[in-house]
Design brief:
Keywords: Dioxygenase, Isomerase, Lyase, Metal-binding, Oxidoreductase, Pyruvate
Organism: Streptomyces griseoviridis
CATH architecture of the largest domain: Roll
Strand content: 15-25%
Bound molecules: 3,4-dihydroxybenzoic acid, magnesium ion
Helix content: 25-40%
Strand order of the largest sheet: 14-15-16-13-9-12-11-10-17
Pathway: Aromatic compound metabolism; 3,4-dihydroxybenzoate biosynthesis
CATH class of the largest domain: Alpha Beta
Function: Catalyzes the conversion of 3-dehydroshikimate to protocatechuate (3,4-dihydroxybenzoate), a common intermediate of quinate and shikimate degradation pathways.
Structural class: alpha/beta
GO molecular function: 3-dehydroshikimate dehydratase activity; dioxygenase activity; isomerase activity; metal ion binding
Radius of gyration: 28 Å
Length: about 625
């Protein structure tokens, strides 16, 4: 007989991980699909609801209260202090009875009064557990990574084991364990039933004081750099059957709206449970290319002038809407003037991603709580699955040129095209042997760069990883003259779909909120010259940059002069070279021409501060 799959664990979120009042937090947690919550003491103290009302509210919302936390500075203290701690604890246990919750988290002491004496700690925790038992409460002892004498999970467990009390167990918290670099394999030595609670959080790799790291930078699993799934596997192998609970302290999350945060959090737990085989989701379908990028503009002229100078041709027009398809090689850009009322001017509103199984990719996105958009934007349109990314960008699940699948291009009627860019079959023009390849210019989209709203950067990374199956690189900081940008690239393993996600310093900064479409070319110098000869305007880069470049890389003078003349930036690493330049900005959008040689994997991060400064000084085109 096949063994039954273990039921998916229950999911919880700590109230400290959501913003707002306690009732706002509870409502957001319930709406996002969590089974329960950890109530953080301050949220209760600050609430106008009393414990029985909070209990009733949770029950109405279908939430259990799985943990009350934290109790601090309890153990390993002189007798008189411990007596006072027990009085405090009695009050909390009474409160927990009214709340209807049976597990309390006690974190390892940070008090200067605590002594380094495991036997004393164990004895006092056993006495606390005795008292807890009278109230039907269990005590879960957690090692804070900055605990005064107990800072590792194995140490906390030794004390719990020594105490040997049925109402005393341990609470594991992935942040405390992984931030200390502890080996999580030892978790399997703890009997599962003695792990009373499990808290999960990720964090970006930062070399800093661990308390500050924990209190400000924790993020949801899949958003940072820890192997949270690896840790969870050990916990499940130990036999833990309790809830998976997210406990994130994060400065951005504290300011963001609770509703979207709770959805992001739940998505994180779904991806994590999938990684350890506890939920089945539609399998990831990794995109294999960019079918199109769609610009919405109140005035098509400025942006189509740039496209024309880049060598794009208008090849087709939508049958029912003012949307034109502009194409050059494999790069396809839709210019949509139906969004004329948009306040921001020209912007990148939608992306078509190429999938081997678009319907499967869409099912996964939906299972991971992505907002599903109508399959047809207008009557008569080809039905395409689409979802909204966290920043509102519409993502279309495409299969271009597969006769058995709906093709977005059937909504478009070919226009007569003259010129060099498109072959007679309207297929990509830059194939070897194609005469048009001799004309320098873009061949395909190299990457898209999307600036994210200030509070949705981590969410966007998880979305692109979890929903689209892309790999994320480490985050890099880019200095803009008026603030620091953070950028993180996601891509498929073959580098056919590259998206640079960034987050700007503040909501009012236009440059930081620009989006761009980078176009791959085999010869950026020739492509830039052609663009300029066709009337295009390139972003000028200061001479100082080129003096430095010559010194840094020992480039020949004439090469540097050429780059300077065209505003081409140059970067080199062990794997290859990157040469790239930028058009002026139209609305929120600009274009980049990119030449990668060797296997250069980058996006020009070392040059970004110079580029950003130049953009602040540059004129923007209308539109
Ligand atoms: O930062 C803290 O004090 C704190 C409190 C309770 C926890 O469970 C925790 O992991 C950290
Ligand atoms: Mg914790």
């Amino acid at each position: 007989m096949p063994t039954a799959k273990p039921a998916p664990p229950r999911t919880c979120v700590a109230t400290v991980s959501l913003s707002g009042s306690l009732t706002e937090k509870l409502t957001a947690a319930a709406r996002a699909g969590f089974d329960g919550v950890e109530i953080f003491e301050n949220d209760l103290l600050a609430s106008p609801l009393d414990a029985t009302e909070i209990r009733a509210r949770c029950a109405d919302l279908g939430l259990t209260i799985d943990l009350y936390q934290p109790m601090r500075d309890i153990e390993a203290v002189p007798a008189d202090l411990f007596a006072a701690n027990l009085r405090r604890a009695r009050h909390k246990f009474e409160l927990m009875n009214r709340l209807g919750t049976d597990t309390v988290l006690v974190c390892s002491s940070v008090s200067p009064h605590a002594v380094d004496d495991d036997a004393l700690a164990a004895g006092q925790l056993a006495r606390l557990a005795d008292l807890a038992q009278e109230f039907g409460v269990r005590v879960a002892y957690e090692a804070l990574a900055w605990g005064r004498h107990v800072s590792t999970y194995d140490h906390a467990w030794r004390i719990v084991e020594t105490a040997g009390h049925p109402a005393l167990g341990t609470c594991l918290d992935s942040f405390h364990i992984l931030s200390r670099g502890s080996d999580p394999r030892g978790i399997e030595d703890i009997p599962g039933e003695k792990i009373f609670f499990l808290q999960l959080a990720d964090a970006p790799p930062l070399a800093m004081d661990v308390l500050q790291w924990s209190r400000h930078y924790r993020c949801f699993p899949g958003q940072g750099g820890f192997d949270v799934a690896g840790l969870l596997r050990h916990v499940l192998r130990a036999g833990y059957t309790g809830p998976l609970s997210l406990e994130v302290f994060n400065d951005v999350v504290r300011q963001a709206e609770a509703g979207p945060t709770a959805v992001d959090a739940h998505r994180s737990l779904l991806v994590l449970q999938e990684a350890v085989g506890r939920v089945e989701l539609p399998a990831p379908v990794v995109p294999t290319g960019i079918a199109f990028a769609e610009l919405v503009t109140p005035d098509a002229e400025p942006v189509t002038a740039v496209l024309g100078a880049l060598g794009f041709a208008r090849t087709a027009r939508h049958r029912g809407k003012p949307v034109d398809l502009w194409q050059r090689g494999e790069a396809r850009i839709l210019v949509n003037t139906a969004g004329a009322a948009r306040r921001d001017g020209t912007q990148l509103a939608a992306i078509g991603l190429e999938f081997p199984d678009p319907a499967g990719a869409a099912r996964r996105a939906e299972a991971l709580l992505a907002p599903v958009l109508p399959r047809r934007r207008a009557p008569g349109d080809t039905p395409l699955d689409a979802v909204a990314a966290p920043d509102g960008t519409e993502l279309f699940f495409c299969a271009t040129g597969h006769p058995e699948l709906p093709d977005w291009r059937t909504d478009f009627e070919d226009l007569p095209v003259t010129g060099e860019t498109i072959g007679p079959d309207r297929s990509p023009a830059a194939a070897p042997g194609d005469t048009s390849a001799a004309v320098p210019g873009p061949l395909r989209v190299d990457h898209l760069a999307l600036s994210q709203p200030w509070h949705q950067f981590d969410e966007a990374v998880l979305f692109h990883r979890g929903v689209l199956g892309l790999d994320a690189r480490e985050s890099v900081d880019l200095a803009d003259p008026y603030g620091l940008l953070r950028s993180r690239a996601v891509s498929d393993p073959a580098g056919r779909v590259r998206i640079a996600l960034s987050v700007g310093p503040g909501p009012a900064d236009d440059t930081a909120h620009a989006q761009h479409i980078a176009l791959a070319t085999a010869d950026v110098v020739a492509a830039a010259r052609r663009f300029r000869a066709a009337g295009g305007r390139l972003l000028a880069i200061p001479a100082n940059y080129y003096d430095d470049l010559a010194a840094r890389y020992g480039l020949p003078d004439d090469e540097c002069r050429t780059y300077r003349d065209l505003g081409i930036l140059y970067d080199r690493d062990g794997r290859g070279e990157l040469r790239h330049c930028y058009t002026l900005t139209v609305g929120r959008v600009f274009f980049e021409l990119v030449q990668r040689d060797g296997d250069h994997p980058g996006y020009g991060a070392p040059d970004a501060p110079v580029r950003l400064a130049a953009q602040h000084g540059a004129r923007h085109l209308g539109g």
